[in-house]
Structure formats: structure tokens, C-alpha cells
Amino acid sequence: MNQIGPIFRALLRNKVGALLLALQIALTMTIIVNAIHMIENRSSMMARESGMDEANQFHLMYVGYKDSFNERVAVETDLLEIRKLNGVVDATQINSTPLSGGGWSMGLTTTPNSQDGTPVSLYFVDDHGLNTLGVELVAGENFSPTEVTYRLSNDKQWPQNILLTEAAAKNLFPDLTPAEIIGQTVFIRDDEPMTIKGIIDHLQAPWVQWSNVNNVMLVPQRGLWNANRYLVRTEPGERDRLMREVEELLLAKRDGRLIRNVTAMDEQRDDAYQDFFALQTVLWVIVTVLTLVTALGIVGMVSFTVNQRRKQIGTRRALGATKGDIMRQFMLENLLITSSGLIIGVASSIALNIWLVDTFSLPRIGWHYLPIAMVVLVIVGQLAVLGPARKAANLSPALATRTT
Amino acid sequence: MLKMTSVRKTFRTDTIETHALRNFDLQVEEGDFVAVTGPSGSGKTTFLNVAGLLETFDEGDYQLDGKSVQGMNDRQLAQLRNEKIGFIFQSFNLLPDLNLFDNVDVPLRYRGFNSAERKQRIEQALETVGLANRMGHYPAQLSGGQQQRVAIARALAGSPRFLLADEPTGNLDSNMASGVLDLLSEINAQGTTIIMVTHDPSLAQRAQRNIFVRDGQVTEVQTGTNIQELLQQTAQV
User: What ipTM goes with this model?
Assistant: First the structure.
């Protein structure tokens, strides 16, 4: 390490090459840090639980196309028959599901005509909703069968009782415990009051990128709409069989409807996060290619330098440098250039992250990314310089007396 | 203190074998000032490289300070070069991105001296060559003669037993060459052994001993011998 002073001073005499390499390292660090931050951010989003028993659930859509198709009779008989199937835990009609990407949201307030609403996603379910979804009550009660009503497309009325996820309830009443929240009134559509009958532990809204994804309201209604959806929960290992059986059961009725999109929940999870996965793959490719390009840049630059300095290396060897001294010299030189690049890189990584946070509402990078990226890039730099440095170390000291 | 016995060095390519040194015998005593002359391609530089441990040899024995260098590993050879030998090159071989202080410092850092000792040695060496006031200058800011003086300071700073000089005045005009030679003579007078390879018969005549190398073999000639004539004879042969 006692060579560091002269190496540093010599680098200052040849700023351009060193500066360009340092800037490349800074750029690499900036992109790598933010790309890995985005990858990790997407991974943590993908790892979030929907709140459902996804491995044992599926849903399907049906659309009545004949005038004779009676939606109300269909939903009542269908659900009774599905629930009786061997291996079915429970079933409910539901307007949407977590991870589906399409649904309904409203704003709730604690005072009528208030401007500050808490956004919630709505799932219309019956009294079998909780068991079918696989969610737990934290406080209060489930809907009773008698309070489940039917809802037409143009209905404006809202039922008296609702259930909320704990996250939504906490947003509305941050100072109350779940038990204290039970019986509280919230307002929908500015001034329509509803009573919180129960609080469930966790359930996601349909939109995975929604900032209020954990705010969900369950409404005790069945829909009488053109297209409806059943959610079915099965015993473990029975889902795939029951996906076929339920579809066949409904088709066998020949009552003028189409069955569509019989989808397992874990398949839906894959679809929901397909864009995330694609983005992660692209970012990994960018990180890998950029790291390789930087490493190759270092190899190229050091190889060029070694060729340029053959006589100098021979002279150093003649003056008593061991092979190890020569290797250390190039590795130290690279360490100094890399370190300057990394110092610039820390500043530019933070600057880029601030821009990403402001522009795309990404979370701030964790401080730990910076030292990790620095260590990785130092290792990459040192590995890249190893080959050319070894080549330099093996140059003959006799080069000192040669004219070229 | 430097003894070569039957040293052979052959350079080989796929098709050609060049015998650079054959049965090369030479003994240099402490305090000698030896000039090595000879026509181009005679083996002078190969001798210097072998003597300076810059190149290995194929056969024979080479003893430096009573120790055979044969079989020494790279680290041991580097240490010997660093501690016992000072080099002066025809084209000075100063490191262009280091100032004079740092240039003279190079071998001292490899030696592992502490910074106070290095500073003292560097200042003293630059003082000896008359450049103590230009320590912060870079080689490109100096004349050729001054650069060669820095190279001499660098060679002297580690207090070597030998100075090996390869055409030390080859790139200098006659005034500068004379100055450099005066300096080498002074250094020799203080006890440092000098072996100088040169083409210039007039410079060779200022050494105590003259060695003439021809076809890789050595002939000791009397100081004062007309080396120019020897060179011409060799060229005619």
C-alpha cells in the first residue's frame, strides 16, 4: 500500500483516461443500484400475500345470453350445488378478486360530505364470502344470510352493514382498536351511512400497484349483472379436479349462459405479476450487461496501459519491483479509479433515486444498497484488472534496456 | 565481487539460435570502473542484463558478492537488484508521470525504507547530482543531461554496490556527456563499482578497465588501447 501516494499523483497527471473510467463506474453504480432497488421493490410487491387461500381457489365467469336466463335463480341454485360437491370447502359469488386487475373502488369518510375520503376496493359477497376467501375475522361478526341482498347494475343504494380489512379500518379510525371500530359509522357517496359490522385480517384489492391495495370493503350483496363470477375454495389437492367438475356442472344446465375464464388463483397471481417479472428480467439483463461492459472496459483500459508502459514496467522491475509489486501497482491504481467512480456513483445513485421517487412514486433506496454496490463493483474492478496486471507482472525486467 | 565463469546465453526462435554470450568470463573487483565496448550485436547488452539480473543465463556460474545467483527465485533476484545494483539507462527510463522526488523514491519504496529515511536519501541523492532544487519538476521539464542526472540519483539513492550503466551518454551531446561522466567518476572515486557499456571509445578511455566484447566473448584490453581501431577491425572482419 506504500505505493498509493505516487500512484495517486501520477493519476492526477493523466486525468482524462482515469476520469472517463471513473465516470463509467459511477454510471454503472447509479444504474445498478436503482435497477436492483426496483427489482427488489417488485420482488417484495410480488411476495405480498393476497389474504386468500390461493393454492386451493379458483374462479369462473358466466354470462347469460338468453332472455330466459334467470340470474337470481341461477346464482342461488348454482351455489347450493357447488357447495355440495365433494372437496368443495365453500363458494360465493363475487364481483372481482384480488390480483385480477379489475374491480370497483369507492371513498369512505367518517363524517358526511367530507373531502378526505379513504379509498377502498369493494367486493360484493354473501355470508359465505369470508370462508370462501379464506380470511379471518379480527373483530365483530360475519354477515348473516338474511342481510345479503341482490344488487342490479343501476342500484345506487348501499346496504347497512359492511366488513372492512384491518388496514382500511385503521386508515379511517387510526386511534381506535378493532373492537372499538365495530359499530362505527362510515359514509359512502358523501352522506350515505354504513355500519362497520366486522373487521377482517387482510385482503388485497384487485390492483397490485394500487397504493391502497390493503384497503378493502366487503359488501353483503349478490350481483344481478350481465357477467358474474363465482369463487370456489376447495380442499387441498382437489382444485384442478373441481375446476373441471364445476364447469361441467354449470354447462350441463344448458340454461343459456356461457362459462368463461375458469382460472386458478395461483395462475391469476402469475398473470397479475407478469409485467413485474418481465421488468425484473429486463433489469437483470441490464445490470449484468452493464457490469460486464464495465469489467471489459477496465480490462481494455488496463491492457492498453500495460502495453503502453512496458518499458516503465521493465524499469520498475529493474529497480527492484517484484511481480507482486507490479500487480499491486495496477490493482491499486484501479482501486483508486474505482473508488473515485464510486464516490461520484453514490451521489448520482441518490440523485437518480430522488428523481424516480418524485416522478414514479418509487420508494427511496435503502442505504444498504450503496455499500453493497460499492463492494461488488470494487470486486468486479479488481477481478477485471487481475488478468492484465498478471500479464504486466510477467514482463521481463530486461525490457528496461530495450529501445522499444 | 562480480564473477562470471563460462556464462552462456543463447536466444532461440523457431529457426534461429543466437549465441549472445559464450563462455563469458569476467571478474570485477570492488571499486572498479569497467567500460565494456564492442560492436553492435556483440553481446554487450546481454552481458549487462545478465550482470544486472534482468535476464537469466543458460550455463556457467555467476557470483555476486560471493553468492551464486543461479537458482534464485524472482523475489530473491528482485531484492538483489534493489539492494545491490543501481541502473543507469541510455534513455534515462524516468517515469514521466512522477516528479523527480517520486522518481528517485521508486526503488526506495520497494526496499521498504520508512518515509523519513527515504526523504533523507532522496534529498541527498538529488543534492549529489545538483538537482535538489528541482524535486517537484517532472522529467519532461528537464534537459537530457539533467534527466540522466536524476537517473543517476535514483541509482545512487539506495547505496548500491554496483552501478550498471547502459550507454549512459548515448542520448546526450558531448557537453552533457562529459558532465555525466565526471559525475560517474566522482561516484566511483567514492567507492562504488561501475560497469559501463558504451560505444564511445573516448568515454571508455576514462574507465580504469576496458573490456572488449566480440561474438559473445570477452577480451580484456589495456586502458588506452585504441578501441576505435578495434571496432573498425571487427567491422572489417
Answer: 0.92
